[in-house]
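Re: your question about Glycoside hydrolase family 97 protein

S., sorry for the slow reply, the queue was backed up all week. Below is exactly what I fed in.
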Amino acid sequence: MTLSRLSLLLLCCFAWSAARAEDIQSPNKQLTLSVNVQADGVPTYSLSYKGRPVLKTSKLGLDLKGTTSLTSGFSQTAAERRTADESWQPVWGEVKTIRNHYNELAVTLTQTATKRVMRVRFRLFDDGLGFRYEFPRQPELAYFVVKEERTQFALNGDQKAFWLPGDYDTQEYSTVTSNLSEVRGKMKAATTPNASQTPFSATGLQTPLMLKSKDGLYINIHEAALIDYSAMHLELDDKNFVLESHLTPDALGDKGYLQTPCQSPWRTVIVSDKAADILESKLVLNLNEPTKFKDTSWIKPVKYVGVWWEMITGKSTWSYTNQENIKLDSIDYKTVKPNGTHAANTAHVKEYIDFASKHGFDAVLVEGWNTGWEDWFGKHKDYVFDFVTPYPDYDVQELQRYAASKNVRMMMHHETSGSARNYERHLDTAFQFMNKYGYTSVKTGYVGDVLPRGEHHYSQWLINHYNYVLTKAAEHKIMVNGHEAVRPTGLSRTYPNLIGNEAARGTEYEAFGGNNADHTTILPFTRLIGGPMDYTPGIFETKVSKLNPSNTSFVHSTLARQLALYVTLYSPLQMAADLPEHYNQHLDAFQFIKDVAVDWDDTHVLEAEPGDYVTIARKAKGKSSWFIGSSCDEQGRTSTIKLDFLEPGKKYVATIYADGKDAHYEKNPQAYAIRKLNVTRKSKLAQYCAPGGGYAISVMEAK
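Result:
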């Protein structure tokens, strides 16, 4: 054999070795993953579902700052496989038991030039894929700075997308429904004003990103277990329809500071040819670690009312005075003139406590109780709140005594005005204050630009801050409902005291011009993929001008759909957000809010199509009762469902809270009708949903 022929043979062998693929299938064999190292040492993967491409060949790797990047020059040096099949019970959730069943492939890659080792671990479930980067402890890679993560999701052509503009500081945008090819042209109009926002690209998108392919596949891209890393967005190549990870930078523009051994969050791809399967997936939760808490008995789902909506609408104020330029360490509030519109006063809060007690609610939230609200926003103040000093008209001790006498708990509110550094300084004192006065849950807020200056709501420093708050709260047996924090990534499995997040455009925007009528038919497919949302539903008086004549906004929903949201927008933390006087005007409809559970043994998605409709049935924890909710878009429709999830041989009474015949979210939102039916598991129901409407059903076992 000549030398040239030998060289060619060795080159071909090397190319074959470098390009060899590792394939695995999901347990049900419907998903196939192929992992490859190309001839130039670039690691790639691809994914198919029932033989149809989900993701074409997609690159993997990270750019590093000031050193050789981990994107090419690799060879595969090991591949390990295993299968896991276990079940676990969440502290609270949509189902009593969750199965965690996957086939795993861990590919070890060694970079020839640097001798650095990077492992990519893939877990293939029946409902999708999770994968992450792992960096073992090694002499060649101890400390490193991430310049950018280069994970690709190469789609099979142009797809219908339900997207938000990519932004380092807010998720509170209206979802745009369009083809990916239309994103660039729609981005400017989609990027509406917000209290803090940093859009980064004409084609940048947020996760969870919901997609629908032209051949009918539903695809959801997100991340799981976001710890000590910055949040991932997606940069769209709108010519080739490749999505690439785009991490949130810090004040210096860096994307992450890591020390081995370490790992990235999981990158997740949920896929099915049925939209309902996306909503029933527990993949994101399964990719998080089991709870770290030995005792979880203090963590309990909550149904609450609160002093909140009247301030959102402009009827009342958070602040005690109209004075500005406040310094907490020098002002004496007892000497200033009250404005007469401060909602968080002792007498008024007692009215909410009385209402909560009468109707069986667990807690009362009060915002604006503490000093500092006069100039809390937009001033970049560091020492903006101390979280323990009440206004002169708010008697903490008396209200706690009064609430306890009514078997109602008070829910704390900690707005930080984005000054996360100030919050950390006061955290122990604030939680000790809560323990002293019997508060078991706190609603945190991060409105406005972040302090330290230059940081973003989704950068690594803030991610670590949010998780630090969770761990400190757990030390004091306090549950956390984070607003304006990062979108959830299933961490509620590890930290079940994270009982709620906002992290999206919620009910408050109905007083700021309104949410689109299809908004609540999209949220279950996007924001809620990572965890529950404190959407604050239940608004019965949909004309905001009834509370504040100068505000012409209206709630883009019928009253009946407001009831449905307690089922379709899952949360173990549910607020009846309207004023007590509005519920007193519709006590027959309010009965559903009183009856509906906040913790569940089972969930069935009966019908679903993102942007059009969602109908879900849930079984109350430890009971035989079921609750059904259906929400539709501005077109309206007739929903047809089967009740075959009910127990065989039993009879039930279904109470249906439905849109009236002439109901319409704009023209006649308060038209509703209530009727009762005897049903069994053989029953079928056809129910009209008005434009922007829906229905709610309680199904109780017949006595």
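The mean pLDDT is 96. The chain has 13 helices and 36 strands.

Happy to talk it through on Thursday.
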